[in-house]
Amino acid sequence: MPLEQNAVEIRDLVKTFGAFVAVDHVNLTVKRGEIFGFLGPNGAGKSTTIRMLCGLLKPTAGSATVGGLDIASQSERVKHHIGYMSQRFSLYDDLSVEENIDFFSGIYSVPRERRAARKDYVLKMAGIEERRASLTSLLSGGWKQRLALGCAILHEPPILFLDEPTSGVDPIARRTFWDLIYQLSGAGHTIFVSTHYMDEAEYCHRLALMYRGKVIALGTPGELKNSLAGHHLFHLQVSDLLGAMNVLEKVPGLSEIAVFGGGLHVTAADAERAQPDMRAALEHAGISVPILEPIQPSMEDVFVAMIEQEDRKAA
Fold it and tell me: How many CA atoms lie within 13 A of 21 on its CB side?
């Protein structure tokens, strides 16, 4: 595979299904060795983009290269140089752990003299050495995801595409899975991972936020948080959540009001004026405010603010 500086390059990529535009002129690059996060709600176009990059779907327009290979004209060669893990568990439940590894070693054309070593590596990496004879159907969701990741890297691909790999597993299993991703990145793999979990966005080197088929923001987690500069974020705990939202919608200078956990996150342009104005308006309405404090924005705050900004543009 050519040693390009960028593992993935996408130029004006479009995918339509009839009149529906699933991917709308996407442009981005992913550097070699990078953990690149593809963030967005369900239906944003993340999976469709990944399937095009993996050579599983043909683009309607635009172009892209993966490892220097064109996804349209060299799709079969692309498939040999990547690992792909879909959001749906893709292994065989009626086979044992070891049988699944053996099967995918054959599918990925792992040389016979390398298969034993690769199997041992996958079992050790995924921490499932003692479960090698277990039926895959008996594994927990977290173990299954680790096995699926291991099978996706049997042929030692330099670029991995992970499409919502932690969907449906518990937070501890997700954290363990991300530890594996960091190990692979440290070993030189490029990781392209899609997710709709906001906390996972913090683990990526860079992020693209996708919404309605378009990339609406691109940068490191820190850069995206700083993009809210000039907007001050407040966390509120109130006695009446819905009532407080109705009251705050009428307070001048507030741009975003969103439920966050058991409270509210509110964005304001003028911090010094907004804080007393919010408290006065809520207390006048008979709503107690035990907590009203400025906070640093999380990725979820960035996500909500940018999507609401896109919705306002569309309206």
Answer: 11
